[in-house]
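Following up on my earlier message about iron/sulfur cluster. Here are the inputs again, as you asked, copied directly from the submission form:
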Amino acid sequence: MRITFIKPNIGRMEHSLYVDEGRMEPLMLAVLAGMTPPDVECVLYDDRMESIPFDEPTDLAAITVETYTARRAYEIAAEYRKRGVSTILGGMHITLLPDEAALYADSIFLGDAETIWEQVVDVARQHKLKPRYQGPPGVGQIGRVLPRRDLFKGKGYLPLTLMQFVRGCRFACSFCAVSQYFDKKHYVRAIDDVLREIEAQDRKFIFFIDDNIASDQKALAEFCHAVTPLKLHWVSQASLDVTRNPKLMKLLERAGNWGNVTGFETITPESLRESRKSPNIPRFTKYKEEVRILREHGMQSWAAFTLGYDHDTKESIEATVDFALESRFTLAAYNILMPYPNTPLYHRLEKEGRHLYGGKWWLDPTYRFNRAAFKPTLMSPDELTDACHAARTRFNSIPSLFHRFADVQTHLRSLSRMGAFWKYTLLFKKEIPKKHGMRFGLQ
Ligand code: SF4
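Thanks, got it. Here's what our run produced:
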């Protein structure tokens, strides 16, 4: 038996295939391959950089789906079905919208596929795949499975190893699909299992792709103690409330945490309330204290903003860029507020009649990447789209890069930190205009 694992792309540019130079390893597909019985052959194709050989013989196409890649994922599934190959779709989008997904594949998987993957393979082997499987969300890599990282060889992924310690998040931000998927819970993997996985690979630079590694601060402190002797450099995603725990900040620095993706979301207090971003709300002083603490501990932060709340204006978006430049963040993402399916934000906009693209931007053939998909209150959708793009362009300009780089507390701490700054900021600068306005799917 052969299983073909597929990581779909978002789509394509108007005139050519889009190769994502910032692509990272699709960890979860390698985890599923690691759980697959050894007599089953596993292959991986990554639509972000290679053509999928649809005519290559295979018994099952297993496709991971995010909201952004849903349209393309459904196209890929259709190609396999045309050739009589069984298809199964999994991933967060499938759990959020199972009835939509069921139209496009022989089988769908809701929840974390790892929970019963071996059973799925077994029935697929007998050609008795059921239309729907459901596993509970939970701790990752049960059974101490190691991902099949050999499947990543030759695919040109960024030279950092992806791994996972915590899944889910205890907060309930209004726009967040993670909070919806995990029902405001988090799941912590056994530390000795993570250590074993670190030792089983060669790299010293690791990205823990946890939804919020700081969701359980006690577990994070234990994790820091355990990884400190390994002398790693690592990054993750962490909510801002971690800065209010001085002991933990020291532990993170000592453990080799170089920085994290952190959701600042907005510097407008009314927008912050609207986002229900509770880890950011207490003592809100435009993040002065939080940024001071992050810098004091040398964090090379990747600040994530969501823009387009009811109080946001073109001027407030400009001010967000000023704030990010003053804070000398390594990277910043100026994301338009996106109504992900089944989130509280989605339902509110629906009630208020503010959706564009029929409320299904991810499937609409006229939708383009980075466009507003709803009607904002103080701007037109195009104004919001343009203001966010202008913010990205200004933050990633050459003068801005040099301004941010000249920071002894963070980027100038060591030669390797300087190298990381330039490698990732220049990559970001190159990728942003390439992706902007990209069409979803190929057809
Ligand atoms: S803190 Fe981050 S992961 Fe947690 S609910 Fe908010 S946006 Fe989602």
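One observation from looking it over: The chain is about 35% helix and 15% strand. Hope that helps, and feel free to reply on this thread.
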